[in-house]
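$ ./design --mode recover --in tokens.txt
reading tokens...
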């Protein structure tokens, strides 16, 4: 048994955020809510999502694993209208997930389910020396500046209270510096100077589903995976991206 109703806007953003990195995923469902985690095909990035039952207007479930094609899911959610109600309903007999959108009409879609349980991975527990809380719009703008120069970018944090997004090409470079006085920075926790370099296209995919007023929590350490997390409604999505180790 699984039936759950949620604001379609929230669920649409969750599916979009995941599908930017992975093609398919298995949702683990129990009485506490929905969760899923998977590596991208190149094993460079990990995405994890947790949607507790409190995020839903209606939630009835026992234990299931529901494997779906995210691209097909994304196309259906792309048809959702603002503030429509989305009901997810498992059809065990036909091995399908029914998606029901309700507004001035009732629209029903069915997704075939797949065995993709092998995609599930655990999010590693990592202690980070530094954490920054920043408005998503500011971080995305900084990535756009860096993109003018190169396809990878360095994220630096220094004990003098600065967060720097730096990119250097063969002849050009860009540098965007934020400190604790910036309106875009909501919190800075820095215990040591750190620097790591990452793929810019991956960072863009990770932040593509965010809106400018959302808040990112970014965790950094030297040559460590960056962890980026943010909330969508009452759900949480976490990304880990491996660093580019420079010689």
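writing sequence...
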């Amino acid at each position: 048994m699984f039936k759950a109703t949620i604001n379609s806007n929230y669920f649409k953003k969750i599916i979009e955020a995941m599908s930017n990195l992975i093609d398919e995923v298995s949702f683990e469902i129990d009485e506490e809510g929905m969760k899923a985690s998977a590596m991208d095909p190149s094993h460079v990035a990990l995405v994890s999502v947790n949607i507790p039952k409190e995020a839903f207007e209606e939630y009835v479930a026992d234990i299931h694993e529901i494997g779906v094609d995210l691209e097909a899911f994304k196309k259906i959610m792309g048809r959702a209208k603002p503030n429509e109600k989305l009901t997810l309903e498992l059809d065990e007999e036909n091995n399908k997930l029914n998606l029901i959108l309700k507004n001035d009409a009732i629209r029903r879609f069915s997704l075939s389910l797949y065995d993709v349980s092998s995609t599930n991975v655990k999010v590693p527990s990592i202690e980070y020396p530094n954490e920054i809380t920043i408005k998503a719009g500011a971080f995305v703008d900084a990535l756009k500046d860096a993109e003018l120069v190169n396809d990878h970018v360095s994220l630096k944090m220094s004990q003098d209270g600065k967060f720097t997004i730096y990119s250097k090409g063969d002849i050009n470079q860009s540098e965007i510096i934020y400190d604790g006085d910036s309106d875009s920075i909501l919190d800075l926790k820095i215990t040591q100077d750190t620097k790591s370099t990452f793929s810019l296209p991956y960072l863009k995919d990770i932040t593509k589903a965010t809106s400018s007023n959302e808040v990112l929590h970014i965790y950094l350490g030297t040559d460590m995976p960056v962890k980026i997390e943010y909330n969508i409604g009452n759900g949480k999505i976490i990304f880990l991206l491996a660093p580019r180790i420079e010689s």
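exit 0
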